[in-house]
């Protein structure tokens, strides 16, 4: 009577091994779920960036206001006859005192 119980326990342990330590184990599944969540978050950030870039391209194609704004703020360009005046931020001045 003792041998069948021992054989049963050995078979049970052999069947449990892949669940805990083999391919597709709960540890591997947890690791893959974590990686998937990180990839989904990265994809969402990239999708938002793509949407922002697409909106900027649309603005640049449709009108001159976006091009003018970009030239003024990024390249510090001014129109002929204009005077460029830069006003420093107050919180930056307070930090330098």
TrEMBL record:
Regions of this protein lying in the Cytoplasmic compartment: 1-3
Main location as per UniProt: membrane
Signal peptide: none
InterPro entries for this protein: Cell_div_FtsB, FtsL/DivIC
Record key words, sorted: Cell cycle, Cell division, Cell inner membrane, Cell membrane, Coiled coil, Membrane, Transmembrane, Transmembrane helix
Periplasmic side: 22-97
Subcellular location: Cell inner membrane
Membrane disposition: Single-pass type II membrane protein
Pfam family, one: DivIC
Coiled coil, from the record: 29-70
GO BP terms: cell division
UniProt family annotation: Belongs to the FtsB family.
Record note on quaternary structure: Part of a complex composed of FtsB, FtsL and FtsQ.
Function: Essential cell division protein. May link together the upstream cell division proteins, which are predominantly cytoplasmic, with the downstream cell division proteins, which are predominantly periplasmic.
UniProt name for this protein: Cell division protein FtsB
């Amino acid at each position: 009577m003792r041998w069948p119980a021992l054989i049963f326990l050995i078979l049970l342990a052999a069947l449990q091994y892949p669940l805990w330590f083999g391919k597709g184990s709960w540890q591997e599944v947890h690791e893959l779920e974590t990686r998937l969540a990180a990839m989904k978050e990265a994809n969402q950030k990239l999708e938002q960036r793509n949407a922002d870039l697409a909106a900027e391209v649309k603005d640049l194609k449709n009108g001159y206001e976006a091009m003018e704004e970009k030239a003024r703020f990024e390249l510090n360009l001014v129109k002929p006859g204009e005077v460029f005046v830069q006003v420093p931020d107050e919180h930056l001045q307070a930090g330098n005192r």
